[in-house]
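A further point concerns the way the authors explain their paired sequence and structure data. The central task, working out the structure tokens from the amino acid sequence alone, is never made concrete. I therefore recommend that a typical entry be quoted early in the introduction. An entry of this sort, consisting of the sequence and the corresponding backbone structure tokens, reads as follows:
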Amino acid sequence: MGSAGLKRAREKMLAEGVDRVAIETFAHYYRLLEHGETGMIPESTIDPVGMESLADVEVGEEAGAAALRTTAVIKLNGGLGTSMGMDRAKSLLCVRRGLSFLDIIARQVLHLRKQHGAPLPLIFMNSFRTSADTMAALARYEDLPVEGLPLEFLQNKEPKLLTADLMPVSWPKEPDLEWCPPGHGDLYTALRGTGLLETLLEAGYERVFVSNSDNLGAVPDPRVAGWFAGSGAPFAIEAVRRTPSDRKGGHFARRKADGRIVLRETAQTLDEDKAALADLDRHRYTSTNNLWFDLRAMKQALDVRDGILGLPMIRNVKNVDPGDPGSPEVVQIETAMGAAIEVFEGSALIEVGRDRFVPVKTTNDLLVLRSDVYDIGEDFVLDQVAGEIPFVDLDSEHYKLVGEFDKRFPEGAPSLKEAWSLKVAGDWTFCKGVQVVGEVALDGPTGRIDAGTVLSDTDAHGDG
């Protein structure tokens, strides 16, 4: 039945115009799935890994600028922000002063070009759902395109497979839901299939810096570019120390069998190894998803593998309609782009500060980003002005969706630069100029915080 499923999936992808390299990559993972591959990485097969810190690295100013002049920037921009109630590119969310993620990313790059005399092309990997909105929003930046290079390329799509028999699912009421992205590991497949990898090499670029568009800390910094260029490594990832909020997230390790660095995601961890995954003393580093790779090394690796890097598979089981738990159960075959670190001999890791890792996955993160915890200067780089990043936990019933979240902060985010934590249970509205100091918990079915109120851990905050 599985082989029939692959034949049907191939036909479906061809009919949709999916690139040949992407179809062959999908077929590779389909066969692994068919033969029971789970992509799991047992704790017994790995050891903890250490690394050098960017804080201890010496990079000359000219060396950094020179490296930046032969670097291209790719932003992963395929996400719709559906978990936050959005139906368009998450990067269109307003951060502050009317500027979206896209606005700030574009201005960061334009500033760096001027400062270092670098062409620094900025290219977005969009999905078929985010392309139109993103390109429309970027049209105002007439100087952004670099001659001979596109502003975007599209990630591929693949059919969701029924868990029962691995046949492509049919969902006539909403056919778009029959498809899914292949995870951000599709980056390499899409770069090769679109010809962009060759185009960048022919234009004289030597390396690429890749990061998520929802991480405004991921600036193509000349210091990191200089470190990577000088390291001679074919591939590198920026890592940060894990904190309690990262306990359930992926981490780096070293594979005992061959000494290669691996990135183990939560979905690749056995249930009996979940305690080891959560052990912050054993596995100390998590990925920022900020990665660097040498373009020639990547081309060679893809050439010898006929376009298939062979990243570890992630078997993701969901419902065909994520909003309907009664809809058929499907498998989404995914890969993570950071997993490519194990493909290259001599791959490297570098520990960076949390200022380079400011992801926005929930409205909790968005509130911190919109607050005065960060300042945004003339270079449009986030500058953390608070001593610590406060922990924010907003009642998901009232704040999870961006539209509802915005209603409850009609005058903008409260001041959080002196806060340790803000926990909100119930439905509370914050008026203008509210300050949060120390550890604050609001608890009650509904409440209103008046303009200019200072909330502190010495106060009691019950029903409003």
The longest helix spans residues 101-116. The chain has two domains: 2-356, 363-456. Residues 2-356 form a domain with the Spore Coat Polysaccharide Biosynthesis Protein SpsA; Chain A fold (CATH 3.90.550.10). The two ends are 60 Å apart (CA to CA).
